[in-house]
Amino acid sequence: MATGSHLLCVWHPETAPDISSFANSSLVLKVKVGKAPSATLFAAQTRAHGHQGENVFLCFLLLIGLFYGGIRATYQPSFARIYQFENWWGKGKDQEFLTKPTATWLNILLILVFSLSLALLLVAIHTNIQTIVILRRLFDVPESAIMVRVLLYTGLIAGFVLGKYLFLELMGYIFDVTELVMMQYREFVRTFLFMGLFLPVVMVLYLSLNQTLPEAVLWASNGVVSLMLVGTVVRIARTLSRRVSLLNLHLFSYLCATEVIPLLVLLKLIVFTY
For residue range 250-271, what is the model confidence (pLDDT) as tens digits? Predict the structure, then answer.
């Protein structure tokens, strides 16, 4: 490697480098014989830096806050029906939401904002969805292109949420339980949207504490994503159990095929990638 005037980067996969042991060889050759080099001549200095792409993350967080504020101001009654805690646990409101149409502008906008929030967190905790061979061949996005990765993951997550309805319709037809599909999908969407409201808060904590407590923040962020995925499956099972008995082997198999197995796949791809 050609010598230069500055050492730009040092990296090791397992241990941190000993900065104090580094010296500039070009300066060593210039030291005259008989003169002791100064103590500060060869001292290497580390440069303080923030999280990679921190400004991009902050801009996206600001955009997410504006989106939530604008949606709340425009669709205030329907917005409250999704995000108020008393409506979340109340049985009357529960059934009211499950009978409302799903394909509304409010739900579509909230799904897009949720997808952006989750994509932002996945990029921040270094979870690379492009480890999937098919996606890597279709979308070859470098890890340094943070904004492109966030937008790509946003599209993939939104496509997954919207496309799950087709998957449920197919599985409902195979298991002959099509009457449960719409209620299951509405509960799936509502649970994701409700839990997604806390993702920007997790992102703020990540950016605030990542420099001082990187391991703890990484585990906490992965834990929040895992809790969201597992909590969605538990909530769907709870809602379906009110309509039918899940002790039936046929219905239990349907729940495993539509929720449990996809949950394990998502946990493997998102949480246990690293």
Answer: 888 999 999 999 898 888 877 7
Alpha-carbon distance 170 to 168, whole Å?
5
Cβ atoms of 174 and 207 closer than 8 Å: no
Please state the three-class secondary structure of 138-177 as a single string: HCCCCCCCHHHHHHHHHHHHHHHHHHHHHHHHHHHHHHCC
For residue 16, what is the DSSP state? -
Q: Which letter, b or e, does each residue of 53-64 get, where b requires 16 or more Cβ atoms within 10 Å of its Cβ?
A: beebbeebbeeb
Q: How far apart are the first and last CA of the chain?
A: 31
User: How many residues comprise the chain?
Assistant: 274
| pTM, two decimal places | 0.72
The distance from CA 121 to its chain's CA centroid, rounded to whole angstroms, is 4
What does the alpha-carbon distance between residue 46 and residue 112 come to, in Å, rounded to a whole number?
40
Instruction: Compute the half-sphere exposure of residue 167: CA atoms within 13 Å on the CB side of its CA.
Output: 16
In whole angstroms, how far apart are CA 115 and each of 84, 120, 262? Answer: 20, 8, 17
Cα–Cα distance between 266 and 256 in angstroms, integer?
14
Paired tokens of 16: 């941190």
